[in-house]
Model the fold of this input.
Amino acid sequence: MHDAPSARRPVVAVLTGAGAGIGRAAALRLAADGMTVVVTDRHAGRMSAVVDEIVQAGGVARGYVLDIERREHFTDVFAAVERELGPIGVYVWNAALNVQQPLLSYDPELFDRLVYANLNNCWFSSTLAARQMERAGGGSIVMVGSVAPDTGATAVEAPYGMSKAGVRALVLALAKVGAPLGIRCNEVIMGLVTGTRFVDTQPEKAAAFLPQVPRGVHTDTAEIAEVIAFLAGDRASAVTGEVLNASAGMLLRL
Done:
């Protein structure tokens, strides 16, 4: 580990699901901005690979195994981060479950598991991070969302869309409660994203959605990472409670 030269202590940024896809791209981008990046992922190998990638590029990173279905992981990891690196200054909620089944026959136990991970533990972890930010005098929370709540999701991912709608309501609540404490909370939403497992392993499905994207090309992970970096940093100091649409035109709204 080495510290980046700075007149002040580097911001500690914690990301979930940072071992691949959007999370990995965001971790690399925040490291390039000089943040101390905490890479969390349920897969130790993926997590370690991203940490090594950041360090080899001259950045500062540390990794922790974290499964968003395990609430105790958040408690333990966030406490370790504050103790070892300092308070969380940026929190990026990125990981999510999306197990697809027809809505009318969706397994109730699977539904409970999905909502517990995607919404309950989003709330739990965000408030943990916010309490550290409060002690430090402020911070930024960025939720990685989806256009699914706006479109009704698809016939096989309604619970996922429902959980993301709940996260959006949480964004607004955290923005209102956090503002007097110097804490901002925003969300970036998207459609299909190149560089994620869903798109890269199912190119035929991704191609089927392309007619809905006016520019003819899906958003990619690097583009989402740029939005996350903007919302996380001081350039967005007046932005809170915002849902930033980065769907490349898949969702158009007033």
User: Anything to note?
Assistant: The CA atoms of residues 134 and 189 lie 26 Å apart. The radius of gyration is 17 Å. The mean pLDDT is 95.
